[in-house]
Write a structure and sequence with these properties.
Blueprint (H helix, E strand, L loop, with lengths): L16 H10 L5 H10 L3 E5 L5 H6 L5 E6 L2 H10 L5 E5 L12 E7 L8 H14 E12 L4 H5 L7 H12 L3 E11 L3 H12 L1 H4 L7 E10 L1
Parallel strand pairs: 1-2, 1-4, 2-3, 4-5
Antiparallel strand pairs: 5-7, 6-7
Helix pairs in contact: 1-8
The structure holds S-adenosylmethionine.
S-adenosylmethionine binds next to loops.
Length: 226
């Protein structure tokens, strides 16, 4: 396992998933993403692709007809399973490159900060092909991603040099996704010490430096839709 900034094999999805869980709970503290996507998942068959520790699963599953939580990491899913026990939820531990679901069976796919963790473009493309295969013809995919700029991007050295985020978001748009919504939200940690600890663990002290100024960290979100 490595710690390549929350990339696919990051230690934060495996032996240090407790750190990821604190990060995940703090992220979007005011629930703006939840409020934006809730009307889209209501009474639908939903696939949460790369569901991690179940941040959105926990909020959405009761509103849906069926909720599939898929993730490559069994350690991430273990945390999700402790949060959600319900007959309408099914956990799937596998790579999203081969989704064990039938063609044309899912109404809505949500995927929050997942495709960018996969480094190889051909594997990302395979995941997109799989999403389209399992999606019903009148279904929708929502990708929640980081937008350019803002405090969060600055702390992890993706601002003012915007190339990495821009290249990735341009790639998503090149695949036919359009911007569905964008807004600013924020992380809320217990205190500044906790925020520093989590950011240092994930991105390293040499990247984070003294850029964490408080327990609140602003984050710009873009939601793509197809
Ligand atoms: C940044 S986390 C996001 C987790 C969750 N969606 C959230 O919002 O908290 C990325 C997640 O994608 C999962 N992941 C990475 N590559 C994957 C793949 N090829 N197939 C399935 N899941 C993958 C990781 O294990 C991790 O849980």
């Amino acid at each position: 396992m490595n710690n390549l900034n929350l990339s696919e094999k990051s230690k934060n999805y495996y032996e240090e998933n407790d750190i990821y869980e604190i990060f995940s709970i703090a992220e979007d503290y005011p629930n703006k993403i939840y409020k934006c996507l809730l009307p889209k998942v209501k009474n639908k068959i939903v696939l949460d692709l790369g569901c991690g520790t179940g941040k959105f699963m926990q909020k959405f599953y009761k509103e849906t007809d069926k909720y599939y939580g898929l993730d490559l990491s069994n350690e991430q899913l273990k945390i999700a399973k402790n949060k959600v026990k319900s007959d309408n939820v099914q956990f799937i531990c596998c790579s999203a490159e081969n989704i064990p679901l039938s063609d044309n069976s899912i109404d809505v796919i949500i995927s929050t900060w997942v495709l960018g963790t996969i480094q190889e473009i051909d594997r990302r493309n395979k995941v997109l092909d799989e999403m389209k295969r399992v999606l019903k013809h009148d279904g929708n995919i929502y990708l929640v991603e980081n937008d350019i700029g803002g405090e969060f991007e600055e702390i992890r050295n993706r601002y003012p040099n915007i190339k990495r985020t821009k290249d990735y978001n341009d790639w998503i748009e090149s695949k036919g996704f359009i911007c569905y919504d964008k807004f600013e939200t924020y992380f809320k940690f217990k205190d500044k010490k906790q925020a520093k600890k989590i950011f240092n663990n994930i991105w390293g002290e040499e990247v984070v430096g003294n850029k964490v100024k408080s327990n609140i960290i602003k984050q710009k979100i873009i939601i793509y839709k197809v």
